[in-house]
Amino acid sequence: MGKDEEKPKEQEIGKVDHYYSKIGVAVIELSGELKVGEEIHIKGATSDFKQNVESIQIEHDKLEEAKAGQSIGLKVKEPVRQNDKVFKVPQHL
């Protein structure tokens, strides 16, 4: 009764390494892959919000996706802090 239909859980895919408050960009160290168009959830001591990924940048180059081990620049809609966790929100089928 409902156990078989559990919602997919959010997957941790990285953490915030730095935040540039003047331009609203977070540097995220990825431990999983991330693509433009996916939804992420950023959660920390004072942060807790979801947003869609509109662009990913590495060294000012725009990419459609990034892989584990890369550091990416990501425009965020709210301030974040170093070590905030970044989760990928499962796509609803």
Fraction in helix: under 10%
Structural class: mainly beta
Unreliable segments of 5+ consecutive residues? none
CATH architecture: Beta Barrel
- What is the strand arrangement across the widest sheet? 5-4-10-1-2-9
CATH class bucket: Mainly Beta
Strand content: over 45%
Oligomer: single chain
Averaged pLDDT: 93
Our count of domains comes out at 1
Largest sheet: 6 strands, antiparallel
Count of DSSP strands: 10
CA(first)-CA(last) distance: 20 Å
Please give the radius of gyration in angstroms.
Answer: 13 Å
Present the secondary structure layout.
Layout: E1 11-20, E2 25-30, E3 34-35, E4 39-43, E5 48-52, E6 56-58, E7 61-63, E8 65-66, E9 71-75, E10 85-88
Antiparallel strand pairs: 1-2, 1-10, 2-9, 3-8, 4-5, 4-10, 6-7
